[in-house]
Design goal:
Elements (H helix, E strand, L loop, with lengths): L54 E2 L5 E5 L5 E4 L1 E3 L5 E2 L2 E2 L1 E2 L5 E5 L2 E5 L5 E4 L7 E4 L4 E5 L5 E5 L4 E5 L16 E9 L4 E6 L5 E5 L5 E10 L5 E10 L14 E8 L5 E5 L5 E8 L2 E6 L5 E6 L8 E6 L4 E7 L2 E6 L4 E6 L5 E5 L5 E6 L5 E5 L5 E6 L5 E5 L5 E6 L6 E5 L5 E6 L5 E5 L5 E6 L5 E5 L5 E6 L5 E5 L5 E6 L5 E5 L5 E6 L5 E5 L5 E6 L5 E5 L5 E6 L5 E5 L5 E6 L5 E5 L5 E6 L5 E5 L5 E6 L5 E7 L17 E8 L5 E7 L6 E8 L5 E6 L2 E7 L5 E8 L2 E9 L5 E5 L5 E7 L3 E7 L2 E8 L5 E6 L2 E7 L5 E8 L7 E9 L5 E6 L3 E7 L5 E4 L2 E2 L1 E2 L5 E2 L14 E2 L2 E5 L5 E6 L3 E7 ...
Parallel strand pairs: 96-97, 97-101, 101-102
Antiparallel strand pairs: 1-4, 2-3, 4-7, 5-6, 8-9, 8-15, 9-10, 11-12, 12-13, 13-14, 14-15, 15-16, 16-17, 17-18, 18-19, 19-20, 20-21, 21-22, 22-23, 23-24, 24-25, 25-26, 26-27, 27-28, 28-29, 29-30, 30-31, 31-32, 32-33, 33-34, 34-35, 35-36, 36-37, 37-38, 38-39, 39-40, 40-41, 41-42, 42-43, 43-44, ...
Helix pairs in contact: 2-3
Length: 1212
């Protein structure tokens, strides 16, 4: 639960944003530390369960935003306990409606939520610091007052409306409204008032003028009141005539005859919010055609408390108010208890399952101790301004922070391992120098408007930034002097990005910044169709294929219809949790939850049941998989344990997994893995029955060594990094060193082995690989305007007798599907696709799919309702009760049997054929990486570099694989023998557009190995001049000749049918068909046997496909989608708040508390209170976002970013 809101914060520590490093107070006005936020601890839609106040502060009531040096967020707020009559009527507040009131010598501040705070008496020119409320207050000699933020970044100026000869300094004025909001760089928003004390114009920090129009209503008691009617936007004051307004309408408000706000219209005049009242108290709010929420009170007055909430989706909440406690009963009859103290701070919470958590506060109202329901204690300390000075997690790991005495920004941060980071500021509070724990220094330069204009990295390389009058970045020039340019509309929404090659991508957005169309640099366009409330209801790709969504009233998907008319249906329970899904074949998957809302059972499309148990805090402790499938989804009884595969998760005090124990149903086999962490929470040891893995890190948390102990062998790898964090060396177990050389911030330009050149790389203006040396060959690469590889040629370097050894050209359709491949050896091959982008035919191969994506024998074959394909052409498949393929046979000529460990990893294969029977065994480390395989003649051992196969050894023969930068695409292999000879043979890979190896050439440029494949990766032709070992296939895959399967780290891939042999260990996160590899093998890769990013928020289309192919760091939780500085978009087009996304991340099976989260979305790190910062606060963990835009390479599945990656630490 969210605890009492405070102004405490832990500032962004690693990098300032490209733009203003400032507070953004314009959205919510001043929030004072000594007062509990009226909107804290909301329940439902929403109500404060402690005070019974109905409030509205969400995105639905944000009418518009105008980006500028100080962004103007026009955010309406409603509080049912306010009797004051504001510009919008009783209970409504705007962030700029705060004021000072004077009675004699006493001055009182009324903040943006109508708290009345007495200010100290001040002499003219005097300033006093008020840590209790989080501000400084200064009285000017002219009768004005300034409220200054703790870090001196924001100034609120209050002044009397009229001065006369008898009152020259305004010292006798009793009403001082807010007249401007400014910052330390001179930017300010001004408010101009009429004689009636109402603001008539707002001039924003760019100089745009917003005239405010009012209407008059006569109340039943005879009083006349003014109500804000309309706000328009003019580019400057010259466009505002004295007798009227000329400009763009931003918002219009409609009122009842009683002066109640009943309707909000957007800039197009469409009604987007409606309200109903009783006795001036809000009893209903709605989005026309969507969600309706209704409220009952114990009395319809500002003193009333909400007793009941009901919505048109079937949700309901009942409130019972008791001394020190409120009971809330939801639509399922489940009761939650909220405990509070005499100051209405939430001190305890009992969820409907009876789990109790509590929070203690210091005298200033800061939460100093939180004990979760499992008894884990989180401690915090604060300075007098409410800034966090230390946090201690339940395991005792402590972070300490020191602050600048004036700017209240960190000067020193010490992590739990003792690593210290230092920060220095200039005379205006701008961060000018950051020194990390290893002494690496990054310096920042600023313009006179407070924008970062220059960043000098630890190598002394400089990148520069330029901005428009609104403070939005218009160009970014990297340290190679390559410039990316940005265009923005009047509302601050991105319109265009022009890269260093002059190629422009155009964006169309609605008034709220939601993307409605993207036109790529090649002219092709994809469309995003939205309903009145901005929710995505259709997506049309560049080929015209359209996916449609029907949404529930609250924006959840009810029906998804693909371009072929196939549908997925979604159903929800009374708590709006998905309880049933019906796939395109009509098969159903169901979900059930416990009283705390946690998933406790899932029944898959194939009838497989998985049950889950949790500790009191909601962390997973047990997974149960019945061997004999039940017809219900309830968890099995304890006495059924002998029939159940049971996985138990043991955790340390910080909630991190320290052991996983899986016991087979018959009790004959138990598998155990253990993990240990250092003081900073980094994995330092992972053990199982097969091997032990040890890791070490430097002071910056970078991996510097990895040692694997397996079968009596010790394999050690050492890593070195430069000051920018680039991986510059790998020391192999035999002492040889792979060196990586970079230019700029991290663009790879050379790889060598102990000084012997492997490759030199030249790059184009976009830093894409343009050429690569490969022995006596040079490979050249050419790309089109949307970053697709369209040609590659490998040419000998002999000037007199140059000739091509490799030559391929590629043609694509508008949706990035490969249409034609022309190869100098293989000839021309054409590809055709269905409306869903699935490969339909190439050459003599034809493919038919059922609606759920299962490959079929032909058009007449029935759909596979359980997704377990039993027959394909002449191949037969048999599955165990967990959905693992246990037998694959092709007539009598070949039959394979597979045995699995309790964790569903293949550990034995028995292959029978005409020549007899062979046996093979496989071993894995605790991270799931295969470390050996055995056959009758010996054992092959494997080395891993994180999640990438680095090499293998069998007997005295070793192969080391070298890859393209940050990719799974192989670049070279190094063969050597341990017979005392120092000579190593280097062979060079030539891959196709998705990184599949097609040829290997030697140092003389001769082709030593080449292959041709069927569409889904099975080898059709393989030729070699000598005995070359080349097992790599699709990126991240290793060909096992004994079975014909491809090892794909977390699973095995069957290229005969284009799918995996076991279900996705991430469940439906990677898609609802748990066996599916990809719809199109010519455009997708899955290097880990999962789907690229952990949480893919893109809607169907090119971007989702690209995100699905991005390999990510296993220690980082990755989220991809459309985003901006205010939020990220869900697949259905609904904007996700930080709290919404945090909940989705926490429910993900791969996420562990404390994991760093990376947002692969544009601009989530732009601005100080940006979305990445909000997510860091919600998750209480580091979040990495970028202040620029992102695009991905379709070939190498790597990311390109304009701008900087920024690490945001939580501000609690």
């Amino acid at each position: 639960m969210k605890v009492k809101e405070t102004k405490a914060r832990l500032y962004e520590l690693d990098l300032p944003v490209s733009g203003r490093l400032r507070h953004d107070e314009s959205r919510s006005g001043i929030e004072l530390r000594q007062f509990a936020h009226r909107a804290s601890n909301g329940v439902g839609h929403p109500v404060n369960p402690i005070t019974g106040i109905k409030f509205l502060t969400g995105e639905e009531d944000l009418d518009f935003s105008l980006f500028g040096p100080i962004t103007l967020h026009w955010q309406r707020s409603y509080f049912s306990n306010l009797a004051s009559d504001g510009w919008l009527g009783q209970g409504w507040q705007l962030p700029f409606s705060m004021c000072l009131k004077r009675m004699g010598d006493a001055v009182t501040l009324t903040d943006s939520q109508c708290h009345d705070i007495p200010l100290p008496q001040l002499a003219p020119g005097e300033t006093k610091s008020l840590p209790d409320i989080g501000f400084h207050v200064r009285r000017e000699g002219n009768g004005c007052y300034h409220l200054i933020s703790a870090d001196h970044s924001t100034f609120h100026r209050f002044a009397p409306l009229a001065l006369d000869a008898e009152n020259p300094q305004g010292e006798h004025g009793d009403f001082l409204p807010l007249v401007s909001v400014g910052d330390q760089f001179g930017a300010h928003i001004r408010f101009l008032y009429g004689d009636d004390g109402l603001p008539t114009r707002i001039v924003d920090a760019v100089g745009r003028v917003l005239p405010l129009q009012y209407v008059t209503r006569r109340l039943p008691d005879g009083r006349e009141v003014s109500r804000l009617r309309q706000i328009t936007l003019c580019s400057d004051s010259s466009l505002v005539a004295d007798n009227g307004h000329s400009g763009k309408v931003l918002v219009t408000y409609d009122y009842s005859p009683e002066g109640e706000l009943i309707r909000v219209r957007n800039g197009e005049g469409q009604a987007v919010r409606e309200y109903r009242y009783r006795n001036y108290v809000l009893i209903e709010h709605s989005q026309p055609g969507a969600l309706v929420s209704r409220y009952e009170y114990d009395q319809c007055s500002p003193q009333g408390k909400v007793l009941r909430i009901e919505t048109n989706t079937g949700e309901s909440w009942h409130f019972r108010y008791l001394p020190g406690k409120t009971e809330v009963v939801n639509a399922l009859g489940e009761t939650a208890h909220y405990l509070f103290d005499e100051s209405n701070a939430l001190v305890g919470y009992v969820d409907p399952a009876g789990n109790f958590s509590k929070t203690d506060y210091d005298a200033a109202g800061n939460p100093v101790c939180h004990i979760d329901a499992a008894g884990r204690t989180h401690l915090s300390t604060y300075d007098v301004w409410g800034n966090i000075t230390s946090t201690t997690d339940p395991a005792g790991a402590r972070i300490e922070v020191l602050y600048h005495p004036k700017w209240r920004r960190p000067t020193l941060v010490v992590d739990p391992a003792g690593a210290a980071t230092r920060f220095e500021y200039d005379a205006t509070g701008n961060l000018i120098r950051r020194t990390d724990a290893l002494g690496h220094i990054v310096e920042y330069g600023w313009d006179d408007r407070g924008h970062v204009s220059r960043i000098t990295d630890a190598h002394g390389r400089v990148q520069t930034f330029e901005y428009d009058a609104r403070g939005q970045m218009t160009s970014h020039t990297d340290c190679s002097r390559r410039t990316t340019q940005y265009g923005w509309d009047d509302f601050g929404h991105l319109q265009s990005v022009t890269n260093a090659a002059g190629e422009t991508t155009h964006y169309q957005c609605d008034q709220r910044g939601r993307v409605t169309a993207v036109q790529r640099a090649d002219g092709n366009k994809e469309l995003f169709i939205r309903d009145l409330h901005g929710r995505l209801i259709a997506h049309t790709d560049a080929n015209g294929a359209r996916t449609r969504w029907e949404l529930t009233a609250d924006g959840l998907p009810a029906l998804q219809t693909d371009a072929q008319g196939h549908c997925v249906h979604y159903e929800y329970d009374a708590a709006r949790r998905m309880c049933r899904m019906t796939n395109q074949n009509g098969a159903q998957c169901s979900f059930s939850y416990d009283a705390a809302g946690r998933l406790v059972s899932k029944r898959g499309f194939d009838g497989r049941v998985t049950s889950y148990r949790y500790d009191a805090s909601g962390l997973l402790t047990e997974r149960l998989e019945p061997v004999t499938q039940a017809r219900s989804t309830v968890a099995p009884r304890d006495d059924e344990g002998s029939k159940t595969l049971r996985t138990m998760y043991q955790r340390d005090q910080a909630g991190r997994v320290i052991a996983i124990v899986t016991t087979r149903a018959d009790g004959a086999r138990t598998e155990r893995s253990t993990w240990r962490y250092d003081a900073a929470g980094r994995l330092i040891e992972a053990c199982n029955d097969c091997c032990r893995l040890e890791r070490k890190y430097d002071a910056l948390g970078r991996l510097i060594s990895e040692t694997t102990h397996v079968a009596g062998r010790t394999l050690s790898l050492a890593y070195d990094h430069d000051a920018l964090g680039n991986h510059v060396q790998t020391t192999l177990p035999d002492g040889r060193i792979l060196n990586y050389l970079y230019y700029g911030p991290g663009h790879l330009h050379q790889i060598n082995l102990d000084g012997e050149l492997i490759t030199d790389i030249e790059r184009d203006a976009l830093h894409r690989e343009a050429s690569r040396t490969q022995g006596r060959l040079v490979s050249h690469y050419r790309y089109d305007a949307v970053n697709r590889l369209v040609a590659q040629h490998a040419v000998t370097t002999q000037a007199d007798d140059a000739y091509r050894v490799v030559s391929r050209e590629y043609e694509f359709d508008a949706a990035n599907n490969l249409l034609r491949l022309t190869d100098m050896r293989g000839g021309t091959r054409e590809y055709r696709y269905d409306a869903l982008g699935r490969l339909a035919r190439t050459g003599r191969e034809r493919f038919t799919f059922d609606p759920a994506g299962n490959m079929l024998d032909g058009p007449a074959a029935p759909p596979v309702c359980n997704d377990r394909v039993a027959r394909f052409e002449e191949i037969r498949y048999v599955y165990d009760s967990h959905g693992n393929v246990t037998e694959k046979s092709a007539g009598r000529s070949r039959c394979m049997h597979f045995d699995y460990s309790p964790s569903h990893r293949m550990e034995r294969a028995r292959v029978s054929g005409i020549t007899g029977e062979q046996h093979f065994e496989y071993g894995y480390d605790a991270l799931g990486r295969r470390v050996w395989k055995k056959d009758d003649s010996g054992t092959t051992f494997f080395m891993w570099e994180a999640n990438r196969l680095l090499g293998e050894t069998r007997d005295d023969f070793t192969v080391v694989y070298v890859y393209a930068h940050n990719s799974f695409e192989p670049l070279a292999q190094i063969e050597s023998r341990a017979n005392g000879a120092k000579h190593a043979t280097i062979l060079y890979y030539h891959t196709d557009q998705i990184g599949m190896p097609i040829e290997l050439t030697d140092s003389e440029g001769r082709v030593q190995w080449q292959a041709a494949y069927n569409a889904w990766g099975s080898t059709r032709i393989q030729e070699m001049r000598r005995n070359v070992h080349q097992p790599l296939r699709f990126q991240g895959q290793y060909f096992d000749a004994e079975t014909g399967l491809h090892y794909n780290q977390h699973r095995y891939y069957d290229p005969d049918i284009g799918r995996f042999t076991t279900q996705d260990p991430l469940g439906m996160t990677g898609g609802i068909n748990l066996y599916r590899y990809a719809p199109n093998p010519n455009a997708w890769i899955d290097p880990l046997g999962l789907q690229g990013v952990d949480l893919n928020c893109f809607p169907p289309g090119i971007d989702r496909a690209t995100a699905g192919r991005i390999p990510t760091d296993p220690n980082v939780f990755s989220v991809a989608g459309h985003g901006n500085c205010q939020g990220m978009m869900a697949p259905n087009g609904q904007m996700l708040s930080a709290a919404d996304l945090a909940q989705r991340i926490q429910q993900h099976p791969r996420y562990q508390p404390g994991m760093t989260v990376q947002l692969l979305a544009c601009e989530t790190g732009r601005g100080q209170n940006c979305f990445a910062q909000q997510l860091a606060n919600s998750l209480n963990t580091n979040v990495v976002g970028t202040n620029g835009t992102i695009w991905a390479s379709l070939r190498s599945s790597t990311l390109a970013v304009t701008g900087c990656w920024i690490n945001f630490r939580p501000r609690i």
